[in-house]
Amino acid sequence: TSGILAGKRGLVMGLANNRSIAWGIAKAARDAGAELAFTYQGESLEKRVRPLALELDGAVLGHCDVTDPASLDATFSEIERIWGTLDFVVHCVAFSDKDQLTGRYVDTSAENFNNTLLVSCYSFTAVAQRAEKLMPNGGSMLTLTYYGAEKWMPHYNVMGVAKAALEASVRYLAADLGGSNIRINAISAGPIKTLAASGIGDFRYILKWNEYNAPLRRSVTIEEVGESAAFLLSPMSRGITGEILHVDAGYHIVGMKNPAAPDI
Ligand code: NAD
Fold first, then answer.
1. Closest to 189 (Cα-Cα) out of 22, 49, 48, 29
2. Which PANTHER family does the UniProt record give (predicted)?
3. What are the tens digits of pLDDT across the range 126-146?
């Protein structure tokens, strides 16, 4: 990734700790030469996020709750104040009530459906609205999705529905903003053990299943997702928009269990 993001400035949203996908992306982006700014959700995350941000010489913009328009406005005003313009945004944010990431999708409540879609899908559009104004010379925006958007997965439930909507929104945003040379893409990451993933029922089983059945016979790391992200954020991918790039050790091409895979 040497130098592909030199001179670029980017906002990273969704860093919680050093297992976060946002951390893998931030490390790769910094390694590629980018200057970074971070937001985090809630003051309790500050003590984790601040040292990580400083490790990458990043600016800490403070708390930002993506469901709160005033909080988003404050974040983007701060970016305008410190940088004037912005080259890329990384959106690594999702949430659903843990109690509904197990059992049946059909039992999802309206309240949790709305909140899951608001945090995990609409927030990317809300971010794009604000980031667009700071990208007069074009830019790249990236979000994170999962294969549960395309196919049924056990326990993923309403989050799968939210990711399907998020992937559709990537296409609509790409068409809206393409004329301004702003590109919108998503990475569909294979399962990785993070804080958010631990909320999904039986996550260990999902991880093992992927390891045994993916063409590369393993799971992916946040570093691998990070390096693919650096590519999508950089001019190296300037001909790509509206794309959902699978960084999943090839799992999404598989149609049947690998007969050689052990039982889990
Ligand atoms: P994580 O827990 O490290 O990150 C999730 C982040 O979302 C946290 O930083 C949390 O603070 C933030 N967040 C939740 N609600 C928010 C709100 N209202 N306002 C602001 N921030 C909020 O977990 P992760 O796995 O790194 O998740 C990052 C993204 O990757 C998510 O979109 C997730 O769905 C996606 N993803 C994860 C996996 C996986 O297996 N871990 C696979 C594919 C996609």
1. 22
2. ENOYL-[ACYL-CARRIER-PROTEIN] REDUCTASE, ENOYL-[ACYL-CARRIER-PROTEIN] REDUCTASE [NADH], CHLOROPLASTIC
3. 999 999 999 999 999 999 999
Kindly state the DSSP code that residue 120 receives in the 8-state scheme: I
For the Cβ of 192 lying below 6 angstroms from any atom of ligand 1, the answer is: yes
Q: Enter the ipTM.
A: 0.99
Distance from residue 151's CA to the centre of ligand 1 (Å):
20
Is 65 among the annotated ligand-binding positions?
yes
Paired with 63 in beta bridges are 40
Helix axes 222-233, 21-31, angle to 10 degrees: 50
According to the annotation, is 41 in a ligand binding site?
yes
Nearest residue (CA) to ligand 1, atom 21 = 41
* Residue entry with tokens 């927030």: 123
pLDDT in tens, 50-69: 999 999 999 999 999 999 99
Q: What is the length of the chain?
A: 264
3-state class (DSSP) for residue 228: helix
Atom of ligand 1 nearest to the CA of 23: 26
Q: CATH code for 9-250? A: 3.40.50.720
Q: How many CB atoms lie within 10 A of CB 240?
A: 14
Answer whether 181 contacts ligand 1 (Cβ < 6 A).
no
What predicted TM-score, i.e. pTM, was given to this entire model?
0.98
Domain boundaries, the chain: 9-250
